[in-house]
Amino acid sequence: MRAPISWLAEHADIPAGTTPRQVAEALIRVGLEVESVESGAEGLSGPVVVGRVLSFADEPQKNGKVIRWCQVDVGAHNNQDGTPRGIVCGAHNFAPGDLVVVSLPGAVLPGGFAIAARKTYGHISDGMICSVRELGIGDDHGDLPGSQAPLDGILVLPANSAQPGDDPLALLGLDDAVLDVAVTTDRGYCLSIRGLAREVAAAFGTAFHDVTADLPPADRAAHEVLIDDPTCCDRFSVRVVTGLDPSAPTPEWMVRRLRQCGVRSISLAVDVTNYVMIETGQPLHAFDRALVRGALHARRARPGETLETLDHVRRTLDERDTVVADDSGPVALGGVMGGASTEIHDGSSEIVLEAAHWNPSAVAQTSRRHKLTSEASRRLERDVDPEIAGVALARAVDLLVEYGGATAAPGYTVAIADESVPPLIAMGVQRAAELAGTAIDREHVVATLETVGCTVDGGDVLQVRPPTWRPDLLIAADLVEEVVRLVGYDTIPSVLPSPPAGTGLTDRQRFTRAVSRALAGAGLTEVLSFPFVPADAADTLGLPADDVRRRAARLVNPLSADEPDLRTTLLPGLLATAVRNVGRGNRDLALFETGLVFLPPTGAAKAPAPGVERRPSDAELAAIDAAIPVQPRHVAAVFAGNATPRGWWGDGRPADWTDAVEAARTIARSARAELTVRAADVAPWHPGRCAELLLGDTTVGYAGELNPRVVAALGLPARTCAVEVDLDAFPAPGPAVAPTISSYPPVLLDVSLVVAENVPSAALLAAVRDGAGELLESVDLFDVYRDAGRLGPDLKSLTFALQFRADDRTLTVEEATAARDRAVASAADRTGATLRA
After folding, report:
1. Which of 212, 379, 419, 698 has its CA 20 to 30 A from that of 567?
2. What is the DSSP letter of 339?
């Protein structure tokens, strides 16, 4: 909302000597956002005066251009001998005797354009005759008084409006600053001079002067109006003027103010409706009375109806659209834009002026449905004062009578479907002080609310009735906000609240952080992906049709149509990050991520969507809870390229499935747990290079090399590996218990066992550990040997390092050997292993 200071000063007593910037600061202090304080003369300096063109001579040039050598009277700024100044001009839209704006040598125009006497086209041009663009006051001459010039034509001032040598800034309104205020949706009343002036008066504690006009008695004599649908319009008012002179010009002061507010002058009738809308906040529409057929109706559109709006677009109407209609059908899009069939034109002399209070939601929906926003819809969808319509109509009629020679037709028609008044709001008189943390006495609270426009009654509990122009005041908290903002946000003490004592991190939170630190310490880089995945993510990973990870929950309104599903595995987002890095030349990757996955419950019905008119029933709440996806926390990692870089020490080591399995073991160590690893065949991993990760008998994840089809589909480096583990499957470790360390020496023994090729090393390791008994301190597999000639076909030899120790004595070789023999016997019994010779 752009508001000239001079216009605000007509309705609010601004203290003498107050600068425009101080007015802006006062508005900011009471909670409004002033984006800028603009001066029409900004960037304009030096001698700029009014001049009168005495004569000129057209001089054709070799380039085909015709210039004018002009003699211009600039009053006291003429040459020393009193002769007029000679100025070269390329425009042709002026005549001898016209008043123009002249920038003399030494002047600087907006954009840093300095004026000097210079020789051009064979003459010394002693200044410049200016256009609107050169003065920096607009892009269109049609909205300036007395000027009908093209865009780069000379600005011609109205005849007899000034004398040569006068200052043109006041005439053009360039000495008046303009505030540009960003109005929030809850303060629609500030989209008017009336509303902003109230705020200025409240900020300075001075008097406010409301817009006034004499209203005739309400009757049905002006023009018949009907409200057919009260849900779209509750008040509909009209006045009629006759005998309007269609050629009557808009007064200069009105054109200037409209231009300052960013509105282009069109004609007197249209300019008056725009002017009154900006002044009062009430949008008006002018119909050519001769083109209106019968009574005007405020209603919704009917099936099949169309309307050509003022922008000359034929629109097919929706049954929910708000319209003004006559006997011929819709003649305006209610609250948004008028129709072409009843548009004011150059010959319009009888006008029906309409002011309606439309339903804000209906106007907003109509505007968005047709992608059509107007100054009227901006105000009406934020709600306007329903009581100001009569004043706005009377003000418009008075202006048309005064400046257009019109006659106010008898009558003032008002149709009212709802005469409700704002309800009373109960507010404790101490509530504002309690919430603001500063002293605000009862007198101050009452005075502030009355300044806002409320009526206040009561003692310790005030009974407050908001004004009709403040539909945003609905509850006591709204009134408290008004009191506090007018007292001044800057007076509220800045006191930080005391935070409640925390209980620290839970065991589960500590575990999750420990996992992240352990993986980062192992050289992996943590990433964070969105939890949204494409609809074909399961197909890309090659998941079978019965895989539970295919049952993804779909969002009703996803952020991106390309990613409508919630992830059931971390791999899609993690692999997408890897693809992005590879595409940017980073081919050696070790990435990990922790986050929630979303697994819809098996057989769960679709969640109900209860309305807001009542509390959901227990059954509905239970059904909603049952449909919520299970959300375990997973951790996943991806390895690609080299695990260790190449250098002077030799070739790098490519990442392989062992890195993925080791990452899983790193996770398990953070939980002080031990994983069992065995072969598996699960998508999206390679069928022969996939490891199942077990915690006891529970599968907690998978690791290994990704399926070559998945790698190729994503464009990842060959033999990319990945691991994904369910963190929630691990018990959160409590406080660490220091291990018991024996002071006695260990006994180290190695054993080599020959087993069939299809026997998992994990099974053999478990058999050895179980058979060795409690004296076994550790067992590690450190060699795998295959030789069909020495061992036999389909056989392999696994060598384990066994370390035995007792807590209370030094073990003898015999005790350690006996324990080793028990381990070999257990392995032979459970896996068919034999001791390698």
Report:
1. 698
2. B
C-alpha 292/C-alpha 342 separation (Å) is: 6
CA-to-CA distance for 617 and 608, rounded, in angstroms? 11
| The domains spanning 2-40+177-204 and 425-489 adopt the same CATH topology | yes
- Domain ranges (residues) in the chain: 2-40+177-204, 48-172, 225-416, 425-489, 507-597+632-729, 747-835
Q: How many residues are present in the chain?
A: 837
Can you tell me which residue has the tokens 């002044």? Answer: 279
142 neighbors 117 (Cβ within 8 angstroms): no
Whole-angstrom Cα distance, residue 807 to residue 175? 97
Q: How far apart are CA 465 and CA 479, in angstroms?
A: 10
Considering the domain delimited by 425-489, tell me its CATH architecture.
2-Layer Sandwich (3.30)
477: number of Cβ within 10 Å: 12
Q: Which helix (H) or strand (E) holds 389?
A: helix 389-404
Exposed, middle or buried by CB within 10 Å (0-12, 13-18, 19+), for 427? buried
Coil, helix or strand for 329? strand
Residues 349, 404: Cα–Cα separation, whole Å:
10
The angle formed by the CA atoms of residues 390, 392 and 397, to the nearest 5 degrees, is 95
Q: Looking at residue 410, what DSSP letter applies?
A: S
**Tens digit of each residue's pLDDT (9 = 90 or more) over 464-506:** 999 999 999 999 999 999 999 998 888 888 888 788 887 888 8
Please say whether the structural domain 48-172 has been given the CATH code 1.20.1070.10. no
Residue 106: CA count within 13 A, CB half-sphere: 6
H helices of 166-215, in order, are 168-172, 193-204
- Per residue, the 3-state secondary structure of 637-688, as one string, reads EEEECEEECCECCECCEECCHHHHHHHHHHHHHHCCCCCEEEEECCCCEEEE
CATH of 225-416, one of 2.60.40.2470, 3.50.50.60, 3.50.40.10, 3.30.70.20: 3.50.40.10
684 preceded by a cis bond (ω within 30 of 0): yes
Q: Reduce the DSSP state of residue 188 to 3 states and report it.
A: helix
Pull the structure tokens for residue 684: 């999206």
d(CA 406, CA 363): 32
73: exposed, middle or buried (C-beta count within 10 Å: 0-12, 13-18, 19+)? buried
Alpha helices in 293-374 (DSSP H): 360-369
Tell me the two tokens of residue 551. Answer: 């049952």
Using CB atoms within 10 A of its CB, is residue 63 exposed (0-12), middle (13-18) or buried (19+)? exposed
Which of 611, 615, 527, 513 lies closest to 571, judged by CA? 527
Do 404 and 248 meet the contact criterion of CB atoms below 8 Å apart? yes
CB 570 within 8 A of CB 634: yes
Residue 669 vs residues 364, 495, 507, 733, 761: alpha-carbon distances, Å: 59, 46, 15, 10, 20
CATH code for 507-597+632-729?
3.30.930.10
Look at strands 337-338 and 329-333 and give their pairing.
antiparallel
pLDDT tens-place string over residues 72-89: 999 999 998 999 999 999
Two structure tokens written together for 164: 């040569």
The dihedrals phi and psi of 757, each to the nearest 5 degrees, come to -60, -30
CATH 3.30.70.380 is right for the domain spanning 747-835: yes
Mean pLDDT per block of 10 residues along the chain (837 residues) reads 93 92 92 86 84 94 92 94 93 92 92 90 93 72 41 78 88 82 92 95 94 86 91 94 94 89 91 96 95 95 94 94 95 94 92 95 95 94 93 95 94 89 92 88 93 91 94 93 90 82 87 95 95 95 93 90 95 96 93 96 82 88 90 96 88 92 95 90 94 93 96 94 96 82 91 92 90 93 90 92 93 92 94 89
Question: How many whole angstroms separate alpha carbon 566 and alpha carbon 564?
Answer: 7
650: phi then psi, degrees, rounded to nearest 5:
135, -170
The pTM (predicted TM-score) of the whole model is: 0.61
With tokens 């090399």, the residue in question is 705
